[in-house]
Amino acid sequence: MKALVTGATGFVGAAVGRALAHAGWDLRALVRRGADRRNLHDFPVEPVEGDLADPRSLRTALEGCDALFHVAADYRLGVRDPAPLYAVNVEGTRNVLAAARDAGIRRIVHTSSVATIGIPDDGTPGDERTPVTLNAMIGHYKRSKYLGEQVALQFARDGLDVVIVNPSTPVGPGDVKPTPTGRIVLDAASGRMPAYVDTGLNVVHVDDVAAGHLAAYERGRTGERYILGGENLSLRAILAEVAGLVGRRPPRIELPYAAVLPIAVVAEGITRLTGRSLTISLEGVRMARKRMYFSSAKAQRELGYRARPPAEAFRDAVRWFEAQGMLRIGPRGRGR
Question: Is residue 189 part of a domain?
C-alpha cells in the first residue's frame, strides 16, 4: 500500500508517517518549498514538492497512491492575518480532496481537531454527538478547522470514502515549531510560566494519535468522526507534571480570567504591530474559559483505539526538546 501524507514535516503528520512506515506502507510526503524537513529523517519517505493551493502539484503527488492521509493544517492562535488559516485549513482541504477524488484514491483519513467538537455546559466531556455550530467557534483557528471539516463531510456525503479523526491535544517528540501546546510544555520546563488559569485540556501522546489514524483507515466508517484523545487534565496538573520532570517547582499562582484578559489584549496588539506571535493571545485566553475535556469512547469502541498515560507524552516531549537544544536542563535536573 502506498499513501500520500500531507503535513508530514509537521508534528502530527510526522508521527503519522512514522506509524505508517512501521506498518510497512510506502510513503510519499507533500512538502512545501523551503519547509523544514527534519522530521522526514525519521522514516523512509519520498518527498514531493507541492502546495495545497496548487491542484496540479496535488495530482502529481497522488499518482500511484492508494490512500491519502490529509494531516496538513495551519495551527496558530492570535495571528495578525487569518487569511492563510482559511487558505490552508478550508480551501487546501477542498483542493486535496478533489484531487484525491479525481485520482481514484481508495480511502482518505482527514485530520480535523477537537476544536470542532462542542463542549457541554455542565462540564462533562464533549464527544462526537455534542451539538455545536460555527457561531460557537472561538477565533479563526477553530472556525477554519470547523469549516474544513464541513468540506470533508460534504465530500463524504457525495460518495468519497473519507474518515475524519479529531485529535485532542497531542504532546510528544517532533514538535519542531513548536505548536501552541508544545510551547506550553517548553515554557513550563524552562520556568517561564509562573502562573496559570483555571482551565483544562485533554492530553494525548502524539504517537497514539498517529496509531489512531491507521486504525481509522482500517476500521473507521465513511463520513464518521472519531475523537483521538487521552486524559483530561487541569492546566495546573499539566504544569506540575512537566515541572516535576525537570526538578522545578510548579507555579502556584492562579490568575482569574479577568486578570489575564487585558494582558492578552496587550500581547495581541504587540503581535499586530510587530508581526511576531507571542505565547499568550486573546484567542487562546478566550478558549481557556472552558475546560476542553473530551471522550474517546467512540474511537475505543469502533477502532480499538487506546492511549497511554499523558506522563509519557510529557516525558518524551521534554527529552526531545532537550535533544534539539530547545531546552537546557541544569544541575540536579533544574531547568536554566
Answer: no
d(CA 103, CA 146): 25
DSSP E strand stretches across 71-208:
107-111, 162-167, 169-171, 195-196, 200-205
Q: What's the domain count of the chain?
A: 1
CA atoms within 13 A on the CB side of 46: 14
Question: At 281, which amino acid appears?
Answer: S
- Write out the chain's pLDDT in tens, 336 residues: 999 999 999 999 999 999 999 999 999 999 999 999 999 999 999 999 999 999 999 999 999 999 999 999 998 877 778 999 999 999 999 999 999 999 999 999 999 999 999 999 888 999 999 999 999 888 899 999 999 999 999 999 999 999 999 999 999 999 998 988 898 899 899 988 887 778 889 999 999 999 999 999 999 999 999 999 999 999 899 999 999 999 999 888 776 655 454 444 344 444 454 445 555 554 454 455 567 899 999 999 999 999 999 999 999 999 999 999 999 875 544 443
Helix/strand/coil for 186: helix
The CATH number linked to 152 is 3.40.50.720
